[in-house]
Design brief:
alpha+beta; 2 domains; three-stranded antiparallel β-sheet; two-stranded antiparallel ribbon; 5 strands; 43% helix; elongated
């Protein structure tokens, strides 16, 4: 399912216009992104949690040249499904 399909499905289920749902979904994505950028966490009870994971610096190899490189420390977004969502999927 793509973003536009999700917007249509929410609009039909909630009885709202697709424009209103699109604005809400975009606002939600912006808020979650901003919170994760600050290093925070977003918990949606029954669904899951969005958080930031820190990956330590490590050594690697450039596949083209075979040269050794250092991959810097980085942060990446992580989603962890909640108990209710896991049970529904099983």
């Amino acid at each position: 399912m793509k973003k536009q399909d999700l917007i249509k499905a929410i609009a039909m289920k909630a009885g709202l216009s697709q424009d209103a749902v699109a604005k809400m979904l975009n606002a939600m994505i912006d808020i979650i992104t901003a919170e994760l950028k600050r290093g925070g966490e977003v918990n949606i009870t029954g669904f899951g949690a969005f958080k930031v994971s820190k990956r330590a610096a490590r050594n690697g190899v450039n596949p083209r040249t075979g040269a050794k490189i250092t991959i810097p420390e980085m942060r990446s977004p992580v989603f962890r499904a909640g108990k209710t969502l896991k049970e529904v999927i099983r």
